[in-house]
Amino acid sequence: MRIVGYILFYLICIAGLNSFGQLSPGDLTNAHAKLEGMNNCTQCHDLGNSVTNTKCLDCHKEIKELLKQNRGYHSNSQVKSKNCIECHSEHHGRNFQMIRFDEKNFDHNQTTYTLDGKHKTTDCRTCHKPENIENAEIRKLNNTFLGLQDKCLSCHKDFHQGTLDKDCKKCHNTTAFRPAPGFDHNKSDFKLKGGHVQVDCKKCHESVMKNGVEFQVFKPVVHNDCVACHDDPHQEHFKGTCVQCHTDEAFTTFIGKKNFTHDTNTKFKLLGKHRQVDCFQCHAKTKDPVKVFEDRNGVTTNQCATCHEDFHKGKFGNDCAKCHTEKSFHELKSMDFFDHSLTDYPLEGKHVGVDCKKCHKKNYKDPIDFSACKNCHEDFHKGQFTREGIQEDCKECHSIQDGFALSGYSLERHNETDFPLTGAHIATPCFACHVSEEKWTFTNLNGECVACHDNVHGNDFAMNGVTDCKRCHETETWYPSLFDHNLTKFKLEGEHANVACEKCHLPAKAGEKISFKIPKFECIDCHK
Q: How far, in Å, CA of 39 to CA of 61, rounded?
């Protein structure tokens, strides 16, 4: 039985070999030779179906990845729509060429990278070589055209050695590396203007050797001031930037009159009128760049006599800035320090704190008539104290020590008027009688009581239409001490003399005045 089993196994193997020979259309190419045999058919074929793109891309992962990135020849819409087997058929023998590629007639525009400029005439293998392929797996493939990036630096060396943007196309094109037509110097930190436009690049961007190769320095280039490239003809005599005085057009074009910051670049700040003065009114003209504007070195702002004539002929010293400002010779600073006692009018009291210009309206040298207050001060009383055309001077009532708000007008002087102050009037403040609607009045006042006080009695005590308060009241107190009840129609006799007034003269109702007139005074009218 064992011998019979061996024989059957041998016959089956022979049958299987004969069947394979009938199923396979031919040998695979050398590239796919390892897939020969019945057990490997499904590596490429689906059962009952032809070779699918999915099966191909499962092995050719580099193509699959390029398709995902939409890069390369296979991502072209016309190529992408085909099945792999249409271009790369198999089973034609070991030496069959699955990739039939005509380098001379290949249209590179079918890839995602169009050839233009110098690239059109460049040999394919100049770019398509292993060292230019980034992907390590693709790099292992023989004579492949796959795997190149479209970045310039994937094939070309970085001439700028990492100092500039790695996107070369921003400045360069494929026609030639020099010049760089895409570069706009005006978009850089240093715009080219005037004479700089015609200057050769190498004048500012020098070529040096770096890492063993030629290297032209484009960045960083110091340009915060002209002296970074140009010699300083002033030998550092000026701290400011050159553009304050010079232009890009020419060094000889001088614009410093408007732009030079005299305040920060010198020890002499220009203020007031000095800002409007031409430079050469103070500085001597010279063509020597080392000497120009140097003739006033060391002059300080309070040494006015160095340039200006001393108007006071030395009487007040040389420190003009103590009194004067740069705005105008006639515009003075605060003169608080000035000793006014040296003049004919020493300052006293309230005058001490008054601003000089309040009295000296124009020039300090103009004489002032200080014989009377009215010559400087407005008459607050509007002529009330003018008699026969002569105005009484303010000092008769006011003093410069206490100020105008306080009055020196005495009680004795008031008693010399038509209205002497007596009793409670002595303690009454002036404004209670002399101010009406915020206006002070001292003359032609009505001296009658009702001019200041309310008439609480109405016409109860009027005689001939006039109520004379003084018939009953005094200025000492409001109590009617002068009133004599016996002069009325009802004399107070007996117990009536001891009765309080309000027992008979009842308080007034709200809004009414109390009346002291009783129309009927029979006993029964009061006593019930």
A: 22
Count Cβ neighbours within 10 Å for each residue of 58-96 and write b for 16 or more, e otherwise: eebebbebbbeeebbbbbbeebeeeebbeebebeeeeeb
Beta-carbon contacts of 372 under 8 Å, excluding residues fewer than 6 positions away, are 393
- The pairing of strands 213-216 and 435-436 is unpaired
Token digits of residue 369: 């008539």
Per-residue pLDDT reduced to its tens digit, 451-482: 888 888 888 888 888 889 998 999 988 888 89
- Backbone φ, ψ for residue 45 (5° rounding): -105, 140
User: Please, which pLDDT band fits residue 12 given cuts at 50, 70 and 90?
Assistant: very low
Give residues with Cβ within 8 angstroms of 276, minimum separation 6.
none
Mapped onto helix, strand or coil, the DSSP state of residue 435 is strand
Round to whole Å and give the CA distance between 183 and 233: 33
Q: Which value, in Å, is the radius of gyration of the alpha carbons in the chain?
A: 59
Phi, psi for 390 (deg, rounded to 5): -110, 125
The encoded tokens of residue 270 equal 């220009």
Phi-psi region of 424 (alpha: psi -120 to 50; beta: other; left: phi over 0): alpha
**Which of 299, 296, 363 shows the shortest CA–CA distance to 328?**
363
H, E, C per residue of 33-63:
HHHCCHHHHHHCECCCCCECHHHHHHHCHHH
The pTM score is 0.44
Secondary structure class of 264 (helix, strand, coil): helix
* Encoded amino acid at 448, one letter: E
Beta-bridge partner residues of 435: 440
